[in-house]
Amino acid sequence: MTERRPTAALEDTPVFHPLMLAICPILGLYAYNVGHVPWTALIRPVLVAIVCAQLLQMLLWICLRDKHKAGILASVLLLALMWGWSLLETGIVMASRNLQTLEPRVVYGALGLLVLLLALGVYVRNRADKRRALLMAGLFLLIVVIGALLVALLLDRIFGTVASTLILAYLGVVAAGLVYLAVWRRDFRPWTRTANWFGLILIALYVALIIYSVPRSGKLPPPPPESPVQTAQAASDSPDIYFILLEGYARCDVLLKLYGHNDLPALEALQDLNMAVDGTAFANYPWELQSAISLLNMDYLDRLVPPDSPDDLDIARFHGLYHHNRFFQTLHDAGYEILAYSPGVQAIEPGPLVDRCLTPPRTASEFEVVLLQGTACKRALELLSYARGRDTRSWQLGFRRARVNYVFDTMGRIAEESHERPRLVFAHVTVPDPPFIFERKGEPADPRIRRTLQERYLGQLHYTSTRVADTIQQITERATRPAVILLMSAQGPRIHTTENVTEPESLAEHFGVLLSTRYPDEAPGAGTPSSNSVSLVNTLRHTLNRVLGANLPLLEDRALLTPMETPLQAREVTVPTLEHVAAPALEPR
Known about the structure:
This protein is of the alpha/beta class and about 600 residues long. The protein has 19 helices and 9 strands.
C-alpha cells in the first residue's frame, strides 16, 4: 500500500480566490456609496470581473500546467492591477505635488543613484557566479535605460514624467514578482486553501459593511402629495408631457450682458415652434441638485423636511427627494406612464417611480467609470484615447456625450410610439454646464485648443440650443397625442465667479435661467403661461393645474442663496433683470 503524501488531500481543492479578490473592490466602492447607488449597478461590473478573472486563471493554468500556481499568480496580478494600482495613483498625485518644489537635477540625480544601488544589489545577490552577476546587473540596467527612453519619447507626453516613471517602475516590480513566482519550485496547494479563506473573509466583511450602511444612509422620507392633487386623475385624452431639464443654460439677458452672446436666434427658433419663453425667469436655488429637487417637488427645501431639522442638513440627505418627487408621484397616481432618460450621474439617475429607464446601449455608468479609475484600466484607456484623438480624458467624458446625444436622437422616436396611457418623458441633461464635452458643431471637445472657459461654454451652449430646437420640432411633428413641452434649466452657468456673490451680475448669472413652455390648448400669441410666476418652483404646479385640473396654489417666488452642501442655510436675495441689455419676455409667434 503506497503512502499518501501530506498535501495530496489538497489536490482537489477548488481554486476560486481570484474570483473573490476581483469582486472585492467592486463591493468596497458600493459599500462607500450604498445610500446613493442602486444594487443593480453591481450586476455588470461583477459579471465582467468574474469572467476576466476566470479567463486569466485559465490562461495561466494552460501556460504553467499547475492550477494552484496559476491561481496564486492570477490573484497576485489582480491585487497589483486593482488594489495596488489605487495606491499607485495616490502615490502619483502626492509625488507630482511634492516634486514640483525640487530642482530637476536633484530628482534625476537621486533616481540615478537609486538605479545604481539596485544594480549593485542584483550583482551582490548573484556574486557566487561573477559572469551571471554581471549579466543580471547589465540586464537590469538595460531594462532601466529602455524604460527611461520609453518615458522620454512616448509616455511623457501622455501621462507626464512623474506618472510614467512610477507606472513603469511599478509594472517592473510586479513583473519581476510574477516571474519569480512562476519559476519558483514550490508546492502551491497549501496556499490555495489559505487564499480561498482570505477571499471569502473579505467578501463577508464587505457584505457586512454594506448591510450595516444601508439603514445609515439617512435619506429624508418622500413628501406626501398636496391634498388638491390626490383626487386628480388623467383623462383618456390627457396630453403627454415632454420635460427637458438642462443644466447651466443662462437667461437671454445674462448671456448678452456677461457673455456677449446673442441668444435671440435660438429663442426665435423656439418661438417658431410655438414655445413661450419667459425672459425674466429665475431658479430658486443657485446649485443644480438643490434647484432640481425643489423644482420636481414643487416646493422649497425647508418645507420638505421635518420642522426640527438642523440647518446644517447635508444635501446628500435630500437625494431621495429627487427620486421620490411629488411631480412624478402625482402623475404616476393619476395614471401616467413615466419614462426617464439616464443622465449618467448617479445622484440624478431615474428612481423607482419610473416605469421605463432609457439608456444608450454599451455605455458605462458613473459607478463603472469611478471603478475603472481606481484600476490599471484607467491608464490603458487613457493610452487608447490618446492613440485615437490625443485626448487622454475622452474615455471618461465619452459616456456623458453618448447619453446627451441619446436624448436628442431618440426623443422624437419616443413621441411617435403608439401608447394607450398618457406619458411623462423626462430628460435631465447635464449640458451646457461643465464639463465641456462638445464643440460648437457637436464634435468632442478638444482640450489641446487653448480657449477660455467662456469660449468653451458658449460653444457647448450653441450645440445644446441647436439640438434642443431640433428635438422639440421632432416631438411636435411626430407626437401621436397632444403634447405639453417643458424646457428649462436648473441653474445658471456660474462661469464668471466673483468673491461677492450678491452683486447684481453674479446673482443674475447664478439664478437667471432659460424657461420655455408649450401647451397644446394654447393658441399662438396667447402669452407666456407662467407670466404670473417667473420662478421654477411654480412651473410644475402650473402644469399640473392645466393638465390635471389639480388646483394647486402658487407659492411666493423666492431666490435663496445657499452653500452647495447645506441647502437649509439660506439667505433670501433679489434676482435682478439686467435691464440695460433689454431682454423682455418673448411671446410665441
